[in-house]
Design a protein that fits this description.
Elements: H1 8-30, H2 32-40, H3 50-74, H4 85-96, H5 99-122, H6 130-136, H7 141-162, H8 173-187, H9 192-207, H10 215-226, H11 236-239, H12 241-252, H13 256-261, H14 268-277, H15 282-292, H16 307-316
Helix pairs in contact: 1-16, 2-5, 3-4, 3-5, 3-9, 4-8, 6-7, 7-10, 8-9, 10-12, 12-14, 14-16
Length: 323
């Protein structure tokens, strides 16, 4: 994969330099959750774009509203229910207390922002990418059906992002559990009637949940079903942002939320290493940088490290999700 042989000393020095740069990027990433949490609790948006903060706040509020709506139905509410701002704020704060939940919602906002940016700059449809079109046209009925389901799910995601909403059914399983625990903590520890309503609401939410049928579940199935051809999903212009991020996460052994964050301009080293760890050759890595960051070059010397070495660097790096 490397055209010019390098001495072990040179490779080691490059690896050391990239490790230091990755550590600096990790330090930046580690500040995101606490800073974003502070901004959500205030009206000061100076360190983050107003768009990202507003979208994150909207999605978190929407999750709280859905849970409170489930509680109302479980408690016998039959008319149109509108939760009080006090209850919404209390539950939103409890949900936000989980850094992983906040990180996931932030990653979704970053994903959609990137999709809109590439639609504007590259005319890349955020819903129907060339890869999805090809899969829909597949002679394999199972593949075509899965692609159609993904198309519909991605269209719903786009509409939800415009409305700053996040359906409960689209949460990863562990984060849905976290939100339900927050609900029980806030409203299910009082009167016996409240506890029964909370238990019934939780049962209803869990009963309607199908992680494999969620947007992220469908994307993972598409990438995994591609097998060796999944390298095509590592071209953002061909796969589209949604599939590209999942393929990058799977290929580099990272969490998808971390992969989404790596597309930010402040995470250029992580992005380059992730692409290499996923198996892309240096020239192809540069193509992805050109697509996402036309004004930013990959870190110097990255091409000297093979997939195993870059995967090793990422494995020992502290992750955004754990920050």
């Amino acid at each position: 994969m490397i055209g010019v042989a390098a001495s072990p000393e040179t490779v080691e020095s490059v690896e050391s330099a990239l490790r230091e740069e990755l550590a600096r990027e990790d330090a930046v990433a580690g500040t995101i959750a606490p800073i974003l949490g502070h901004l959500l609790a205030s009206e000061t948006n100076s360190l983050f774009s107003e768009e990202i903060v507003a979208r994150v706040r909207g999605m978190l509020t929407n999750v709280a509203e859905q849970l409170l709506g489930q509680l109302a139905m479980a408690g016998g509410e039959t008319e149109r229910f509108e939760a009080s701002q006090e209850d919404i704020s209390a539950l939103t704060a409890a949900i936000t207390a989980n850094p992983a939940f906040l990180g996931h919602v932030h990653a979704l906002a970053v994903e959609w922002q990137l999709a809109e940016r590439l639609q504007s700059r590259l005319a890349l449809d955020p819903v129907l990418s060339p890869l999805v079109q090809a899969l829909i046209a597949s002679s394999n009925a199972t593949t075509a059906d899965l692609a159609m389901k993904l198309l519909a799910s991605q269209a719903r995601f786009g509409r939800a992002q415009h409305r700053m909403q996040l359906p409960l059914r689209e949460l990863p399983g562990d984060l849905l559990h976290s939100a339900l625990v927050a609900m029980r903590t806030v409203v299910g520890t009082g009167a016996e009637e409240d506890e029964r309503a909370a238990a019934a609401a939780e049962a209803a939410v869990r009963g309607a949940y199908d992680e494999a049928g969620s947007r992220l579940g469908l994307i993972s199935r598409v990438v995994m079903d591609m097998g060796g051809a999944a390298v095509a999903a590592l071209s953002v212009e061909h796969a589209g942002v949604a599939i590209f991020l999942s393929a990058l996460a799977i290929g580099s052994g990272q969490d998808r939320d971390v992969a989404a964050l790596s597309t930010h301009e402040t995470q250029a080293t992580r992005f380059a290493l992730a692409l290499r760890a996923a198996g892309l050759k240096p020239d192809t890595v540069k193509e992805q940088f050109l697509a996402l960051h036309p004004d930013i070059a990959p870190p110097e010397g990255f091409e000297r490290l093979d997939a195993d070495r870059t995967a090793g660097l990422l494995a020992v790096s502290s992750s955004y999700a754990e920050a």
